[in-house]
Structure formats: C-alpha cells, structure tokens
Write a structure and sequence with these properties.
It is built from 13 helices and eleven strands. By secondary structure, the protein is α/β, with parallel strands linked by helices. Keywords: Ion channel, Ion transport, Membrane, Transmembrane, Transmembrane helix, Transport.
Length: 336
C-alpha cells in the first residue's frame, strides 16, 4: 500500500522533479556503497556522493578513484546507469526550458502574478502603450490577450501573452483576472466600427462577471454604444474617433502658417503624454493655451468625457477637468 501511494505521487509530479529525485537517489546510493566497500579511501558518505556525481556527470576530477575490484565494479555500474541518467536529466531540463519559452511566445501559459495590467487587443496603439509602460519602472506587469496573434516572442516584448478569446471565462482565468489591477479593452481595427464596439462590450461583460471591482477602460468607435458600455461595467470610455476628429477640425480651421494637426502629430511622435487633474496645476495653465511649465506643454483638456482642443475653451479651465500634458522625450527635439 505504501509503495502504491508513493508510485502515485511519483508519477504525478513534473518530469523534471522526477528525474531530479531519481538522480539524487542513485548518487546517494552509489556514494553510500563505495563508502561501505572502501571506507579507508572514501572516509565519509559525502566523499562517496561527491565521487558519484563527478563520475556520473563524466567530469572526472580524479581526486577519488576506486582501488579494489568491487569498488571498480561499482564504478562501472555507476557509469552505465548514473551517467546516462544525468545526461538525460540535463537534456530534459534544456528541452523543458525551450518548450516553456515556446509556450510563452505562443500564449499557452497562464499568468500567476498579481496587480497586473491586462490589455485586450494587439495593434499599433497597444504597441506604443506597452512601450511607455515598460519604460516606466513603476508600472505593473502587462498581460496581453489577443485571439488573432499567433506568436509574440517573449524575449523581445517582455510581456505575458495569452492567445485566446477574451470573452471566454477560461481565457480571463488564465490572465488571472481576479488579481488584476486594471483592464484595458481596445477596439479591434480588423472589424467594422459597430462590430468592434459590440466585441468590446462583450469583453467588458465577461471581465465584470469575474471581477466586480477591477477598473475597466474601454475604447469605443461609435457614440451609440456608450450607454451599453456603461451597463456592461466600463469604468472609463475612450472615444478615439472623437480625438482624431478634433485634430482634423483644428487643422481645417488654420488659414495660414503651420497647421495644428502637423504640430499634434509631431508632439504625439516625439513627446510623452500625461494626464493630470486640473486642480493640481490650474494656477500654471490658466493664462495661455500652450503654456509651458518644467518642459511640459498643455495640449488640451478632458471635460465631462470630452476631449477639448479649442483654445477659447481651454482658457476657462475648471477644477474638475483633466489636463492633457506633453513632455519632450530625451534627445527628441520637436521639428516642425
């Protein structure tokens, strides 16, 4: 009965641990045997184990050598059994490490960490966002969920990738949704606007069903789905089309000189965005629209879930507004 229970335990543990236990058992066994056979030469069991490991791994320092016929016979048996077992262990360990990294890159490994950021959707926006997050050493680990992406090399991007449908509970469990600090759901650029918004809302519903507390930031392409997104549990709704429409509008309003759209594009490419409550900085940015403080420029404000770039409106900053500030990246001067 004891042997049966031990065999059940042994064959249910990972193969790496099984091999390690087997190698350890044989090294201790041969070390003890050689100590019994030649106690004057191998004065302690540890000396015997040391000799067994050095011999079995084919290193062969030569500091301990069996002298008797029986000792040499034990050495031959060790070389024929323990040596092959050690080699097999090292090969298996290497293969397992490679397979684990391949599974990470293919999105097949569950995430075990906590306080992480879950981003749904792989596109140019998320690429830039992940770059910003990784540059910020205070940021939390990032877990990316995407169904269309087949492979994302772990060593290149240094984030945890999960290849699955984010509307499935099993997928969100793999991303450890219960311990996430925030979830960002981006719109799928491969779908039409209405279909992309419906997918976003379904994902928000699935997330909220498994975690009732986590903040959910959603990107919507149409205004019609705003109320549905709120009912689905979205904490923050970003309408990216409104942002671009404002930029185009400002460009059309320019009669001469450099268009504001050109300026914004340069800023977006060469500067870092930050969002600060107006209450903290209101005294610095009330005088003029694009006032500068400590290398930061005021680009616009977010007011009642709307992004404002109009200079007249920005001049009347309110305490409840959120300032959109931009700071030049190092060694990236603004060229217009």
């Amino acid at each position: 009965m004891i042997w049966f229970r031990w065999s059940q335990f042994y064959f249910h543990i990972p193969i790496i641990l099984r091999l390690l236990l087997s190698v350890s058992f044989f090294m201790i066994l041969f070390g003890y045997l050689i100590h019994l056979v030649e106690p004057t030469h191998f004065e302690s069991v540890f000396d015997g184990i040391w000799w067994a490991i050095v011999t079995g791994s084919t290193v062969g320092y030569g500091d301990y050598v069996p002298l008797s016929f029986l000792g040499k016979a034990i050495a031959i048996l060790l070389i024929l059994t323990g040596g092959g077992l050690l080699t097999f262990y090292m090969v298996t360990l290497s293969a397992t490490s490679i397979q684990h990294e391949e599974k990470l890159s293919n999105g097949q490994i569950s995430f075990k960490g906590k306080n992480h950021i879950i981003i749904v959707g792989w596109n140019e926006r998320t690429k830039q966002l992940i770059t910003f997050l990784q540059a910020d050493h205070r940021a939390h680990p990032v877990v990316l969920i995407d169904k269309s992406l087949l492979n994302l090399p772990y060593q290149k991007h240094m984030l945890h990738f999960i290849h699955d449908d984010p509307t499935r509970d099993a997928c969100l469990d793999k991303a450890n949704i219960k311990d996430a600090s925030i979830v960002l759901i981006t719109a799928d650029p491969n779908k039409n606007e209405s279909e992309a918004d419906r997918q976003t809302i379904l994902t928000a519903l699935a997330v909220r069903g498994l975690n009732n507390e986590v903040p959910i930031v959603t990107e919507l392409l149409t205004n019609e789905q705003k109320e549905n997104a709120k009912r689905a549990g979205a904490t923050t709704i970003i309408r990216s089309n409104d942002f671009m429409s404002n930029l185009f509008f400002q460009e059309l309003r320019q009669i001469e000189g450099i268009g504001s759209f050109d300026i914004y594009i340069q800023l977006l490419k060469q500067m870092e965005l930050s969002f600060v409550p107006a209450e903290k900085e209101i005294s610095y940015f009330l005088q003029q629209t694009f006032h500068q403080k400590e290398g930061r420029f005021l680009l616009g404000v977010i007011r009642e879930e709307k992004i404002l770039f109009d200079a007249k409106l920005i001049k009347s900053i309110k305490k409840k507004d959120t300032l959109i500030l931009m700071k030049p990246k190092k060694q990236a001067p603004l060229s217009i």
